[in-house]
Amino acid sequence: LNMNIISESEPFFAALDKFKDTNWSAGPLVNGELLTGETHEVVSPFDTSKVVGKLAFANNQAIEQALSGADAAFSSWCNTPVETRANALQKLADLLEENREELIALCTREAGKSIQDGIDEVREAVDFCRYYAVQAKKMMAQPELLPGPTGELNELFLQGRGIFVCISPWNFPLAIFIGQVAAALAAGNTVVAKPAEQTSIVGFRAVQLAHQAGIPKEVLQFLPGTGATVGAAITSDERIGGVCFTGSTGTAKLINRTLANREGAIIPLIAETGGQNAMVVDSTSQPEQVVNDVVSSSFTSAGQRCSALRVLFLQEDIADRVLDVMQGAMEELSIGDPSFVKTDVGPVIDATAQANLNAHIDHIKQVGTLLKQLELPAGTEKGHFVAPTAVEIDSIKVLEKEHFGPILHVIRYKAADLNKVIDEINSTGFGLTLGIHSRNEGHALEVAAKVNVGNVYINRNQIGAVVGVQPFGGQGLSGTGPKAGGPHYLTRFVTEKTRTNNITAIGGNATLLSLGD
Ligand code: UN1
């Protein structure tokens, strides 16, 4: 699927345009039925007078029905041949492609994402479905034959763990939502999915498409609502078999505590959380290329990616030149309506995010030196916009936490202090992405080896990991691994069962039966 070609064609825009006034109606999908409940109006972060639709949150009854439906459906889904599960995910990928205009329009209107970001969301969601379908077949179609004592047949089976709770973020409301769900389903789990409360409608449509693709309705349950209500109820339930979460480090720790406090089984948490991502630029690098990659890594998607660049370390010999070019490049950024194709920077997600980011900008301007703050154009006061800003600071320590928006912090360093830079980056405890710009390969590889992160990018930007190419995920405060979109991701969604069979007892005629047969 080449979305870039599609995006250049007029029929594509006409098709997107069809959804510009759609008023969606969404809510919990429990055993396939759309339930009612306390209803909220969903407005666009770009212009809060523009209604996107109505959303009902799941109440206690919906939560109970979803969990018991998913629990009852587990045995049959777990024993469904992996080929059948994989085919349903391939069909879901087809349906996501067929409905891409509506899904892109929803990413734009509900999440305030740019059209290019919306195109990328659909492509990534499709890639996740197809990738995990293929991986699951590779891992699970046949038991692995293990060596065993003479006369015994020794086999290793991988199976789903039970109900997987999937809790996803608003910054990738389709790609990460579907990525978690597809992985859990491919591996033979049933799913209770809770989308981010800000961006539930796009998840709702994706679940409808999944049911249309043949995922049984009891197998995939959808519960919109807040973390404090729905999130807390489903993670503390005794019936669940695992949790897959993407969001803040604080919430991941809260979930971990909730899981630890349950009476029942010890179950895995797969968490992908925040970052304090740095880029290290030495004096051998090429300033125009650096600036190109810095601007796209820091400011596109309004900086709302956990992969985004937050702290740029510039070797002092090249710093003035890079900052000069960067300030010019920032002025080229187009800020505004995300449904215009030329828009580079749209709004942030909501009023709380906007207020927190603006408070940080006010604070950091006092602590450091303002390099550049763009003017917000007329019209942006209707939504939750934050002006892209670059500030020079002395140390990464002044940041204390991740600031999830279009704010870049710059630190100069001396060549002799490179090891201190590496220590400073590692001292944050986060370990998600790292950018390096250098034309000294040995130097670049040394930095890559010494900084503790999940994804290193050399002489390029540091966002936009592609499924199967740059599996994504970090370490330390950034998450548990394994990496989404990588060959080991499904391993945490399954449990292992060995079967050792003394086949001499039945005359040596045992045949290879799968556990489900
Ligand atoms: C996130 O922001 O939660 O590499 C994940 C990227 C995306 C993943 C970001 N594929 O930018």
TrEMBL record:
GO MF term list: L-glutamate gamma-semialdehyde dehydrogenase activity; proline dehydrogenase activity
Sections of the chain in a coiled coil: none
Assigned keywords, A-Z: DNA-binding, FAD, Flavoprotein, NAD, Oxidoreductase, Proline metabolism, Repressor, Transcription, Transcription regulation
The Aldehyde dehydrogenase domain, residue ranges: 38-498
Protein's UniProt keywords contain NAD: yes
UniProt keyword Transcription regulation present: yes
Family statement: In the N-terminal section; belongs to the proline dehydrogenase family.
Purpose: Oxidizes proline to glutamate for use as a carbon and nitrogen source.
UniProt name for this protein: Bifunctional protein PutA
Gene from which this protein is expressed: putA
Full-sequence portion shown in this chain: 545 to 1061 of 1064
